[in-house]
Design goal:
The longest helix is centred in the C-terminal third of the chain and has 108 residues, at 151-258. By secondary structure, the protein is an alpha+beta fold. It has helices at 45-48, 69-77, 151-258, 263-270, 274-283; strands at 3-7, 11-12, 23-27, 43-44, 54-58, 81-85, 96-101, 108-111, 115-116, 121-130, 133-141.
């Protein structure tokens, strides 16, 4: 929707003195491409076919009659909204006064809110720095009171947004790097745990092997001891058998000698005791 915003541009209407608001907005009008030509640097109501929707006057002294003659002239022209911004309190103790034209009476009625529905715009007071000057400024805003940014502010906000996006991307990159490092550390930890598990398994297998070897050695030692015991018993039996056989041979010799020799002689010859020889005599 075409519109025109102008500052310090005269508004002309037949049979009315020219009037130059500090700012005005006119909706639904097409600005000529030759606006730079002097003849086109005025707003002619007869040519545009309508008055501007809003006129804003910035009060710097009491000479402009903004609250009397100008106000009445804007009403006769049909300017829907009229705003007086009085930062130096020249005309009243109110810094901002807003009016809306009443269609029936043709008079301005005071507004208690700087919102202009026909425009879809509002005004708000803003303290800050503009073009190197810190002051209280009158700014356009939306229905929520949020400022309509200037080109420089939009560029700065876009720069801030880009910087925030860069920082966000950097933080995301750092987060991704930390996550990768954490994943690598987790992988290293898992690999170390696997190595430790394999070492523990090998140690357990070695311990089991050593235990089995010890058991086999113990069993072999037991078998060896048992074999030695058996061998000792066999040797003892053999010795006993040999002793018995020797005794039998001696007894046999002794029996043969009983008839021809006395007990003492037999004892000396065989090594048997005299009592044993006597028992043999009784047995025979």
């Amino acid at each position: 929707w075409p519109f025109m915003v102008a500052a310090n541009v005269g508004i002309f209407e037949p049979n009315e003195p020219n009037i130059v608001p500090d700012v005005f907005i006119s909706l639904g009008v097409q600005v000529t491409p030759e606006w730079q030509n002097k003849k086109n640097r005025s707003y002619l109501i007869s040519e545009f076919g309508k008055a501007p929707e809003i006129a804003v006057e910035i009060i710097s002294n009491k000479k402009g009659n903004e609250n009397r003659n100008k106000m009445a002239q804007y009403a006769r022209m049909g300017v829907l909204y009229y705003v007086m911004f009085d930062p130096l309190y020249q005309l009243s103790n109110e810094i901002l006064r807003m009016y809306q034209l009443d269609s029936r009476s043709g008079m301005y009625q005071a507004l208690n809110r700087a919102w202009f529905p026909k425009l879809g715009l509002g005004l708000t007071l803003w303290e800050g720095e503009f073009e190197g000057t810190h002051a209280m400024w009158l700014r356009w805003c939306n229905s929520q009171g949020e400022l309509i940014l200037t080109g420089a502010e939009r560029a700065e906000r876009e720069q801030q947004r880009a910087e925030q996006e860069r920082q966000r991307a950097e933080r995301e990159q750092q987060r991704a790097e930390r996550e990768q490092q954490r994943a690598e550390q987790e992988q290293q930890r898992a690999e170390q745990e696997q190595r430790d598990k394999e070492i523990a398994l090998r140690q357990a297998e070695q311990e089991q092997h050593d235990k089995e070897m010890a058991q086999r050695q113990a069993e072999q030692e037991r078998q060896r001891a048992e074999q030695e015991r058996q061998d000792k018993e066999i040797a003892q039996r053999q010795t006993e058998q040999e002793r018995q056989a020797s005794n039998e041979r001696i007894l046999t010799v002794a029996r043969n000698l009983l008839a021809s020799m006395d007990d003492e002689a037999i004892s000396q010859a065989t090594g048997l005791e005299v009592m044993t020889i006597q028992q043999l005599r009784i047995a025979n």
